[in-house]
Amino acid sequence: MTSLSEQEIIRREKLQELENAGINPYPAEEYPVNNTAANIKAVYSEETKDQLQNICVAGRVMKKRDMGKAAFISLQDHTGAIQLYIRRDDICPGEDKTMFDTVFKKLIDLGDILGAKGYAFVTKTGELSIHVTQLDFLAKSLRVLPNVAEKDGETFDAVTDPEFRYRQRYVDLIINPGVKDTFIKRTKIMQTIRDFYNDLGYLEVETPILQPIPGGATARPFKTHHNALDIPLYMRIANELYLKRLIVGGFDGVYEFAKDFRNEGMDRTHNPEFTVMEMYAAYKDYEWMMRTTETLLEKIALTLHGTTQVQVGEKVIDFKAPFKRISMYDAIKEHTGIDISEMDEAQLRDTCKQLGISVAPSMGKGKLIDEIFGEKAEHNYVQPTFIIDYPVEMSPLTKKHRSKPGLVERFELMVNGKELANAYSELNDPIDQRQRFEDQVKLMERGDDEAMYIDYDFLRALEYGMPPTSGIGIGIDRLTMIMTNNLSIQDVLFFPQMKPERGQ
């Protein structure tokens, strides 16, 4: 076990003193909280103060100021902080002043969780406070919180070390209350999406996370083993094929907020565990999906910010519909000056070399085009832009374009230089789908460890008949990054993946 610091030893001694004084530092019974810091501040006035005479609040001690026979505490609950005014004779009305002189003055530390009963009033300095009539111990903190200075509501010396903040998110949330706002907005984003699709009559569903075949995307999966069945299983890389099975089964619209897992690199926009919302609608195409997605994202921006304009770093991104559209080939030509639309695999390799793009021998035509777009074009699309009409080699689950040979009806939505959404007119021809899967197997045999497996059950489902369908996947983590002005995916995940701590 890690050796204790001097302060941690002292806090354990105080814990023992509390127990010796007959105070349970971790009581089990319900505490009758009936108000919050934010609500008290919102409703207090000379006219309403009579309604705030029997307040019961609970929270964490963030500041403590001893004034002799009185004291002030800044108590922080989940809505913010409020000042407690504690007078010795109020909480110790009899001869025994132990609760104040010993417990309060000597045994309460910053970080302890207290309950307080009393009434709201305004101090001589004009600060709304709670005049405490009863103080209760609810939990003793045995570790010292990092010291964060505040003055006039402004925070100084905030803890910014990402290693500490991401690994000990529970402390980050305590000492950097603004972090909570990111996660509250994340929930609002998801709720807005739910409301939007529910209003369209679509059904929220759940599909398997452990799958016998890692289908629905090109990515390297995590693999495990099921002991009872004695079979390998994979953590899902996408939920697409299961949702399309439900469309085959007769649902006109389904969606799911899915935890997906990809055994790949980590950076500011990638975490091995991430959240995607996928939605599939029968009798729709990718043109409908573009219009619907514009409307949805515009609504999310308005719900969170009251405007379609969102600040992201030094940029202002406008989600006002409609969004720009440009084909993948035109996007590459726009930023490289090279028309690759008629190139074969060998010519694409030469083009990659010419552009200084490193490629592997296992990469087929689709991967080469993807590399060119990713290296030379993608980052240029800051404002919401639909990149449409992809080469068929890049899209094994997408319907061939109705009027452009060699292309498919697919779009990716680029925002702030990164993919935010991916959508298709879904391939519902089982014979074509089988051939696309077989082409993926050939890539796998060449060493492409991200190529798709053949899902024979999915092919069987298609053979029963799937109506014309459009589907989309929206990255919830990246959407939250944009909507909350965070530049790292770790800032929008409560508990991002990290290397093990040394010595653990």
From TrEMBL:
Transmembrane segments: none annotated. Binds 3 Mg(2+) ions per subunit. GO terms for molecular function: ATP binding; lysine-tRNA ligase activity; magnesium ion binding; tRNA binding. One of its GO terms (biological process) is lysyl-tRNA aminoacylation. InterPro entries: Aa-tRNA-synt_II, aa-tRNA-synth_II, aa-tRNA-synth_II/BPL/LPL, Lys-tRNA-ligase_II, Lys-tRNA-ligase_II_N, Lys-tRNA-synth_II_C, NA-bd_OB-fold, NA-bd_OB_tRNA. One of its GO terms (cellular component) is cytosol. PANTHER family: LYSINE--TRNA LIGASE, CHLOROPLASTIC_MITOCHONDRIAL (PTHR42918:SF15), LYSYL-TRNA SYNTHETASE (PTHR42918). Belongs to the class-II aminoacyl-tRNA synthetase family. Homodimer. This is Lysine--tRNA ligase. It comes from Chitinophaga sancti. The lineage of its organism: Bacteria, Pseudomonadati, Bacteroidota, Chitinophagia, Chitinophagales.
